[in-house]
Amino acid sequence: MAAAHRLETFMARTPEAIAELRRALGAALRGYREASPLDQTAIGRITAYSRTSISHIEAGRQFPGRGFWETADRALEASGELLTQFDRVVADEKQIRIAELQGAPVRRSPPATRQPRFPGTPHDDDWQRDDVNRRELLRLVAATGSLLAIPAFDVDRVQHGAEHPRRLDPATVDAYEQLNAELWTKFAESRSKRDVLPAAQQQLAAINASLNEPQGADMRRRLCTLAGDLFQLCGEIFFDSDSYEDAARCYAEAAHVSKEAREFDLWACAMTRHAFISIYERQYKHASPLLDGAAQLAVRGNPSRTTRYWVAGVQAQTYAGLGNLPACQRALDKAEQVANFGSTAPATGWLRFEGSRLDEERGACYVTLRRPDLAEPALSKALGQATSARRRGSVLVDLATVGAQRGDVDQLLMNGAAALDSARQTTSGYVGRKLGDLREHLVPYLGDRHVRYLDSQIKDVVTTSGSKQ
Question: What does the alpha-carbon distance between residue 130 and residue 112 come to, in Å, rounded to a whole number?
Fold first, then answer.
C-alpha cells in the first residue's frame, strides 16, 4: 500500500520547513515595504508583477526568482538583506528537495484535517472520496470526443476498471496506458497546456483507487509506472505556467513512485525535469547533483531508450551556466549520439528525445556562455526546424539575445518583436519567462526609442502572465 499512501499524502509530502522559510522571506519584504513610501502596487510596477502577486509573495504563497528580489532589494533600500535571505531560502530548499528526490527522510507537515488537494485543483471536495473520483473519471472519458479525440479507445474497459478497481486485469491497464499516451499527445498539441490538467488529475484518481486495492506485484508495478508518468505530465503543465513549486512537487512524487516501480529511465527523467527548475532559476550548482544522479540511473535503465543522451543535453545547459565551455561541448557531443538510434528508440510521452532540438539547445548553451559566434548558426538552423509556436518563440528570444550580445540593434528588435508575438499567441509562461530575462540585455540600448518600446511591450506581457498565476 506504500504507493497508494504516497499518492494520498501528496500535499503532505512538501516539508513545512520550506513554507516557513518562504513566509519569513515574504514577511521581510512586507516589513521593508511598509517602512518605505511604496505600496504593493508601486512595488508591482517596479518589479513587473501585479499587486495581487506582491500580496501572494508577502504571504509566502508565491516565490519568484532572484531577479525579483534584486529589484525589490534596490527599490526598498534593503542593503542586500532581502537578496541574502532569498539565497539562503533557495539553498535550504534545494537541499530538502534533493533529499526528497533521492528517497531520504523528509520532515513532513502536520497531518491535514481534510483530504489532500492536488496542486491546481479548484475545489477540495473534488478529492474527498475515491468513488467520487471514479465517477468524475467516467464523465471525463465520456467527453473525450471534445477533449482528447481518442481513436478506437476502449471506453467500456476503462469504465469497468474505474468501477471495479479490485479486479483490474492487464487489458484494463493497457487501456490506462493508452489514455496516458493520449494525454501527452494532447499536451503537445494544446495551445493552453492547462487544458490537459483536469484529465490527468482524474486519471491519477483512478490509479490511486486501484493502488488502494489488493493487486499483484506486476500490476502494482505497472500502476506505479503510470502514476510516475502522469506526475511528470502534471509537472510539465505547471512548469509551463511558471508554477515552479507545484512542478517541483510533481517531479518529486514522480521520482518516488518510479523508484518503487524500479523504472530507472522514468526515475531519471523525473530528476532531470526537476533540475530544469534550477536551470531556469540560474541556480546551476543546485541542478548538478540532480543531473549526476539522473545520469547514474540512466545507466541502469533500458539501453534502447535515449534517457542518458537527454540527461547529457541538460547537463550541457548546466555547464554553460557555470561557464565551462569544454564540459558543455563534451556533453552536447554525447547528446548528439542519439542520432545513432534512428527511429528504433521507443517513444513515450515522458521521453521523446530524438535529437530534433539539439541545434536549439546547443544555441541556447552558447548564448548563456556569451558566444554569439557559435550560437547564431545553431539557432538559425533550429528556427527552421521549430514545429510549434512555443519552440519558435524560445529560439527567437535567443536570437534576439545574440543581437544584443553583438550590438546589432536591428537583429535585437526584429527577433525580439517576433518572440513577443509568439508569447502572445501561445500564452506560454516558458516563453514569457525567457522574454523577461531578455529585458536585462536591453538595458544598454534603452537610449533607442524602438528598444524602449519593445521593453515596454515585454513588460506588459510579463506582468499579464504574472497576474494570471
Answer: 17
Tell me the pLDDT tens digit for each residue of 408-419.
999 999 999 999
What is the Rg, in whole angstroms, of the alpha carbon atoms belonging to the chain? Answer: 23
Q: Give pLDDT, residue 330.
A: 96
Task: Identify the domain boundary among 81, 101, 121.
Answer: 101
Whole-model pTM?
0.62
Q: From CA 108, how far away is CA 17, in angstroms rounded?
A: 9
Q: Is residue 250 part of a domain?
A: no
Q: Are 435 and 460 in contact (CB under 8 A)?
A: no
What is the number of domains present in the chain? 2
- Is there a domain that residue 185 lies in? no
Q: Does some domain include residue 121?
A: no
Q: Among 8-12, 333-337, 436-440, which stretch is predicted with the lowest mean pLDDT?
A: 8-12
Q: In b/e form, how buried is each residue of 84-100, taking b as 16+ CB within 10 angstroms?
A: ebbeebbeebbebbbeb
Contact call for residues 14 and 6 (beta carbons, < 8 A): no
Rounded distance, CA 42 to CA 33, Å? 10
425: containing domain? 356-469
DSSP string, 275-286: HHHHHHTT-HHH
The span from the CA of 232 to the CA of 230, in Å, is 5
Mean pLDDT of 175-181: 90
Q: Which pLDDT tens digit goes with each residue over 366-409?
A: 999 999 999 999 999 998 887 788 888 899 999 999 999 999 99
Which three cell numbers, joined as nine digits, stand for 198? 483536469
**H or E segment to which residue 374 belongs:** helix 372-385
CATH number (domain holding residue 66): 1.10.260.40
Beta-carbon contacts of 459 under 8 Å, excluding residues fewer than 6 positions away, are 48, 439
Residues 442 and 454: their CA atoms lie apart, in Å, by 9
Q: How far apart are CA 365 and CA 321, in angstroms?
A: 8
Residues 199 and 146 sit within 8 Å (Cβ to Cβ) = no
In a domain, 312, yes or no: no
> Which tens digit of pLDDT belongs to each residue from 269-283?
999 999 988 888 888
Closest CA to 287 of 351, 339, 229, 331: 331
Tally the C-alpha atoms within 13 A of residue 155's C-alpha that lie toward its C-beta: 14
Question: Using the 8-state DSSP alphabet, how is residue 447 labeled?
Answer: T
Q: What CA–CA distance (Å, rounded) separates 238 from 248?
A: 9
Residue with cell 557559435: 374
Least Cα distance to 266 among 251, 281, 245 occurs for: 251
Q: How far is 436 from 420, CA to CA, in rounded Å? A: 11
